[in-house]
Amino acid sequence: MVQLLKVHGSQNAFFILDQTQLQNPLSDEELINFTQKITDPSNGILGGADGVLVVNEPTRSGSVAQMRVINADGSEASMCGNGLRTVARYVAERDNLTDFKVDTMNASLRVRKHDDLAPGVPAFAVEISPVKFDHTALPFNNLGRQRLLNTLVPELYPGLYFSALAVPNPHLISFVNKETLHGPALKELGTRLNSDNPYFNDGVNVNFGYILGHNELFVKTFERGVGFTNACGTGMSATSLALALTHPDMASFNEPINVYNPGGMVKTILHRDNYNYWIELIGNATFTHTLTAEESALHQADLPALSKNITESNENQAYLAFVNSLPALTF
Ligand SMILES: N[C@@H](CCC[C@H](N)C(=O)O)C(=O)O
Question: How many other C-beta atoms can be found within 10 angstroms of the C-beta atom of residue 220?
Fold first, then answer.
């Protein structure tokens, strides 16, 4: 029998599949099929998810595991910040570690156990890097600019200023007012830039930031390969850095920034080493359910077999109590 975990970071929900426990790891084709089926919210298993986090043996020396991120639509992302916290906790508990490295598509990233966010809410801190701004890194084209940093780009959306950062998955960021935050622009832009379009031919995660105060931010994200999500860890990290670079009086380096999102709250800490930026993302790593099944059920994406033996933890109650303890945001 094998186990699958249902987890979340700021209610950005995933299944963790540890391929190292399998006799035969799933092929890429099986992973895509499995992910598209198990994440579908209408499939009847725990409300679906935003993606599947695949744990493999490490690919680089000095790391203890590899994480692959398969988005709900079957596309693969180079990074996932909320997901990395949950994988960090999974590997930490599996291998009895507290501070180690996990390989992602483009980098080996440091992860470490952090103090609990609240009673019963385990937390991890993860490194978000490398950070790039050039249009080739996202990529974007046909905008007549090499970089976007608080740049008015009417081709994308009239009246909005945009910043574009790869961390290393691609993020487009705009700081908006209340009306725009709650209006149709995010869905319209996210849908358009993640369909056939002349600007972002690999798609892009689109983040709207609303500045609450110094080192205080709210971020709402339309994710590539997913759509609206409760939270996006790399999106909140990229938006924090964009805030410090474009509104330097509103965010400081080397200090925690509180980033609220529809699923809760995380902290980010911005770092600059010479000319390289990197970000620490600190937040919950919550395990809500364990699914136990035969390995063949994974290969066949057999949802009825996967839903037969599910046990629920009480961690989500503690997480929701933490969310209820956060200051009410009135906007
Ligand atoms: N939610 C994630 C990002 C997941 C990947 C994204 N959809 C992409 O395609 O880049 C996070 O927490 O960072």
Answer: 23
DSSP letter for 20, please. Answer: G
ipTM metric: 0.95
Question: Positive or negative, the Cα torsion across 45, 68, 128, 165?
Answer: negative
Q: Is the CB of 233 under 6 A from ligand 1?
A: yes
Segments in the chain forming alpha helices (H) = 28-38, 81-95, 178-182, 185-193, 233-246, 295-299, 303-306, 315-325
- Cα angle 138, 141, 142; round to 5: 155
CB distance 52 to ligand 1 below 6 Å: no
Element (H, E) at 312: strand 310-312
Classified as helix, coil or strand, 167 is coil
Question: Torsion angle, CA of 236/232/101/258, rounded to 10 degrees?
Answer: 40
- Is the Cβ–Cβ distance between 310 and 46 less than 8 Å? yes
Which strand (E) or helix (H) includes residue 283? Answer: strand 276-284
Mind listing the pLDDT tens digit for each residue in 55-105?
999 999 999 999 999 999 999 999 999 999 999 999 999 999 999 999 999
C-alpha distances out from residue 266 to 117, 233, 235, 263, Å: 9, 8, 12, 10
- In angstroms, rounded to a whole number, what is the distance separating the alpha carbons of residues 257 and 266? 8
Q: Are 119 and 318 in contact (CB under 8 A)?
A: yes
End-to-end CA, the chain: 48
Catalytic center residues: 80, 232
Mutation choice for ligand 1 from 11, 15, 70, 71, CB with most ligand atoms inside 8 A: 71
Q: pTM higher than 0.95, yes or no?
A: yes
